[in-house]
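ugh ok fine here u go
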Amino acid sequence: MVQFVFRTEGLTKVYDSGEVQVRALDGVDLELYAGELAVLLGASGSGKSTLLNILGGLDHATSGRVWFRDLDLTDLGDRALTRYRRDHVGFVFQFYNLVPSLSARENVQLVTDVAADPMDAAEALEMVGLAHRLDHFPAEMSGGEQQRVAIARAIAKRPEVLLCDEPTGALDSKTGVAVLEVLNTINDTLGTSTIVITHNAGIQAMAHRVIRFADGRIGGVSENARRVAPHEISW
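structure:
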């Protein structure tokens, strides 16, 4: 029996800026499966980031409903959403959001200090190939290494879900592939449900499933009969 990690029904998000209303999401019905690596593909402004923010408990929908497993997130207050994010969700964004004055280890410990059952920071950094960079500061690391520290920080609390918003958007192709290799390994070895949103069509080849977005709606869903390793992706 397929287990759903997320389910949405009629999810709509409207931004009201005076005289103009923008429908960022327009009635999205979606199921995301436990343990899968799903790619949400679409142009900028298609609604991908808005959906991710709602799934991650960073924003509320205007209408419709959203569930994480059996937990209805739709009407949760700020405190309950904070607890949900802390206990279940890891985030990776396009920009790394590291604290410049803290080492790689200390940046990861920001999460492990408040998590219920965290990895050791050194273990998380080893998983992303940075065991040799524990005591280096962000300014001493490349963009790809900083993004891997951000991934280590996200997985160190052992989240059930990893939500990645354009994780390679600020990186060149070689560095981006290295970051995708890390995400793939985490999905394979930890079984973490991983959702990657991107406008880069090449990345869809590594996914179990691809959800295409356009104008706030789902334009299509497909499965990859054969998944391609990140180093095989045509960037």
